[in-house]
From TrEMBL:
It comes from the Bacteria. GO terms for molecular function: dioxygenase activity. It comes from Alkalibacterium iburiense. Residues 6-130, 151-268 form the VOC domain. This is Ring-cleaving dioxygenase. SUPFAM superfamilies: Glyoxalase/Bleomycin resistance protein/Dihydroxybiphenyl dioxygenase (SSF54593). InterPro entries: Extradiol_RC_dioxygenase (IPR052537), Glyas_Bleomycin-R_OHBP_Dase (IPR029068), Glyas_Fos-R_dOase_dom (IPR004360), VOC_core (IPR037523). Keywords: Dioxygenase, Oxidoreductase.
Length: 309
């Protein structure tokens, strides 16, 4: 049976790119690891934030549309994105969020404590202390490896058909059900990061695409060979899966699961440092070959992003 290690990345729609970059870079302390464009809409940025090396399981990506309508979080989406922070770091994060005027609340589930809050454009986020996962050595804007976000802890998936979504996660993606509590089913993969998924047992009313909602969630494949195996595996389970798409930093396939959530499967390779060095990742606008001839025009259209101290 094939088993994904868990979350590769999560992609969301947000508002102004500078506001987005300041929240994830300056407030949450993630590294801007890639500044490129939406391959289907090159006049829009595609921004990637993660740990210091852009490791799968740490990467959140954004399509920032300044004037787009507000979305509605609901069924067929990732409802909550959960980040893992080191054990003992909650006091730092309580102070950090307060200093940046981010309202948060504290809650518990499955024996763990959470800090829940919204980002600047309405995405629902939460922090949980976890022993699992390596420290994030990207130290900036007052963060250190002792408190910095390690990557994803997991996500809460809002489904139109929860039983079918859970079945897809277990039978197709290889997650294992590990608990049920207060109307949530928890599933887990074998990875140390991005490994926990929760699904409400009750169907969630339809969401609406727009600013402040997650567009899709991507699961991990090891490499190109494993990726082609996943493509066949998904098709053999009755899903209409796309052809392989070259996203420059990974290969991708897509399919809709029965609860209307868009699933992607993405390769861990080649990663984010192959077109710029590890030290300079995220510092320049990187364009896929088909748009390089339009660089001057795109650099004029795309607003500058400033993430200096």
């Amino acid at each position: 049976m094939k088993k994904t290690l868990g979350i590769h990345h999560i992609t969301a729609i947000v508002g102004h790119p500078q506001e987005n970059a300041e929240f994830y870079g300056k407030v949450l302390g993630l590294r801007l690891i890639k500044k490129t464009v939406n391959f289907d809409d090159p006049q829009t940025y595609h921004l990637y934030f993660g740990n210091e090396g852009g490791k799968p399981g740490t990467i959140i990506t954004f399509f920032p549309w300044s004037n787009a309508r507000e979305g509605r979080i609901g069924g067929g989406q990732v409802g909550v994105t959960t980040y893992a922070v080191p054990t003992g770091s909650f006091d730092f994060w309580r102070n950090r969020l307060t200093e940046h005027s981010v309202t948060f609340k504290e809650t518990e589930r499955f024996g763990e404590s959470y800090l829940q809050f919204d980002d600047v454009h309405g995405l629902k986020l939460e922090l949980v202390e976890r022993e699992e996962g390596e420290a994030n050595t990207w130290s900036n804007f007052g963060l250190s490896p002792e408190v910095a976000i390690k990557g994803f802890a997991g996500s809460v998936l809002y489904s139109l058909k929860p039983e079918d979504t859970v079945k897809t996660l277990t039978d197709t993606m290889g997650f294992v059900k590990v608990g049920e509590e207060d109307g949530l089913i928890r599933l887990k993969s074998e990875a140390d990061i991005g490994n926990t998924v929760e699904v409400p047992v009750e169907a969630v009313p339809n969401g609406r695409i727009g600013v402040g909602m997650v567009h899709h969630i991507a699961w991990r494949a090891h490499d190109k060979e494993d990726h082609l195996d996943w493509q066949k595996h998904v098709a053999d389970h009755g899903f209409n899966v796309t052809e392989v798409k070259d996203r420059n930093y990974f290969d991708a396939i897509y399919f809709k699961e029965p609860g209307n959530i868009l699933f992607e499967i993405a390769t861990d390779t080649p990663g984010f440092a192959h077109d710029e060095s590890y030290e300079t990742m995220g510092s320049e606008l990187k364009l896929p070959p088909q748009y390089e001839q339009n660089r001057e025009e795109l650099e004029r259209i795309l607003p500058p992003i400033n993430l200096t101290e």
